[in-house]
Design a protein that fits this description.
Blueprint (H helix, E strand, L loop, with lengths): L1 H34 L2 E5 L2 H11 L3 E5 L14 H7 L4 E4 L5 H13 L4 E4 L26 H18 L4 H29 L3 E4 L5 H6 L3 E4 L9 H13 L4 E4 L6 H10 L2 E4 L7 H13 L2
Parallel strand pairs: 1-2, 1-3, 3-4, 5-6, 7-8
Helix pairs in contact: 2-5, 2-6, 5-6, 6-10, 8-9
Length: 294
């Protein structure tokens, strides 16, 4: 009886040890698999989709300015800067996004061996707004699908540079995503032709490149990153009334009170649009529908 109990206990211990080793090696394998991916850092949400579309299952994306945060004012957390030390590549927007002008020097010093890719290389930069007297450029290049295509090309070039063995994989993924961007551009053009939209009233001037691409006039409440004056709000109300506009727009990271004031004076409503969403294709379809419905 005692011998039988010893055998049972021994078998149980063997089972527990085997199961433990299986779990350990499975976890180690997963960690090894994750570590085999390229860590690629980006500044803003839309770049997350761009990098994932090209890099596929060979990349991990580190997003520096999280959803709902403002790239004009966001300060990176210590753990984010620690993650930067593990990155092989940083895809900067490269169009004077304020987060980058404030922190890229520090980011580069943390990981001097990291490849820096300028996603705006090849994009014709615009002045901040037609009404802005400063020499600053408009950083929101990604809102135009045509510009997004150039950004994706630059990202692909960077990935090939740090991982040439997977060049064909990256280029195939790039081509497939570029086709989706072409389709987005085509559908957006069609949407605005059908709706005959010409003016969009927004709080923050994030859609200048978008407006240019689709022959729209963007009028923003905020100029030079300053809160709108009563005169500015009155001008927007007057513009809305003269053009029978009943929908005005703001973004999730901003206080909607100014656009709510405009909406209340025109008997209209406020709609939220987001230029920083990580799901770029779907989000820009939603943006087109929102603007076209104004």
């Amino acid at each position: 009886m005692e011998k039988r109990r010893i055998i049972i206990v021994s078998l149980l211990l063997i089972f527990i040890l085997t199961a433990g080793l299986f779990i350990y090696f499975a976890a180690s394998g997963q960690e090894e698999s994750d570590n085999s991916k390229l860590n690629v850092a980006v500044s803003i949400g839309p770049q997350v989709e761009f990098v994932k579309a090209v890099g596929g299952d060979k990349v991990n994306v580190i997003l520096m300015v999280p959803s709902g945060s403002d790239p004009h004012t966001y300060e990176p957390l210590p753990e984010q800067l620690t993650n930067i030390s593990k990155a092989r590549m940083y895809a900067e927007v490269g169009s004077s996004v304020e987060f980058e002008t404030n922190y890229m020097s520090k980011i580069k010093s943390i990981n001097p061996d990291m490849l820096i890719v300028n996603c705006s290389k090849g994009i014709e930069l615009m002045p901040n707004t037609a009404e802005n007297e400063s020499d600053e450029v408009d950083p929101h290049v990604w809102t135009s699908p045509k510009n997004a295509k150039i950004m994706v090309e630059n990202i692909c070039h960077g990935l090939v540079q740090i991982d040439p063995a997977n060049k064909d994989y990256y280029q195939k993924n790039r081509d497939q995503y570029l086709q989706k961007l072409d389709e987005l551009d085509k559908n957006t053009t069609k949407t605005f032709k059908e709706k005959n939209t010409s003016i969009i009233l927004v709080f923050h001037p994030a859609f200048g490149y978008y407006a240019k691409a689709y022959n729209l006039t963007m009028i923003a409440a905020m100029i030079n990153d300053e809160e709108p004056s009563p005169q500015r709000i009155a001008m927007m109300v007057d513009t809305a009334k003269k053009n029978n506009i009943k929908v005005v727009f703001t973004e999730p990271q901003y206080n909607p009170k100014y656009m709510q004031s405009v909406a209340s004076q025109i008997g209209g409503r406020v709609v939220f649009v987001n230029d920083l969403d990580e799901n770029y294709l779907q989000n820009m379809e939603n943006v087109a529908k929102a603007f076209a419905g104004s």
